[in-house]
Design a protein that fits this description.
single chain; mainly beta; 4-stranded antiparallel beta sheet; elongated
Length: about 70
């Protein structure tokens, strides 16, 4: 279980999946009282603090993939 955070707003799960192979992902809709598929949904500011759950097919680390900076000049 994870909680949507402000840094996720405007991003999809695929943007923050890190090295995870996500098989399924669902978010809880408190108004409808049901789980909804969020694989292709964009996180909105109204969802901050809401919970979601996902299943992976590998051991992994969630997070944005950011290229490391180049080495410092000699």
């Amino acid at each position: 279980f994870f909680q949507a955070t402000p840094d996720m707003v405007g991003k999809k799960l695929s943007d923050i999946k890190g090295n995870c192979n996500i098989a399924k992902a669902y978010g809880w809709n408190p108004n409808a009282q049901k789980w909804e598929n969020i694989m292709d949904k964009t996180f909105s500011s109204s969802g901050i603090g809401y919970g979601f759950v996902f299943k992976t097919s590998n051991e992994c680390r969630l997070g944005e993939v950011i290229a490391p900076p180049p080495p410092l000049p000699a």
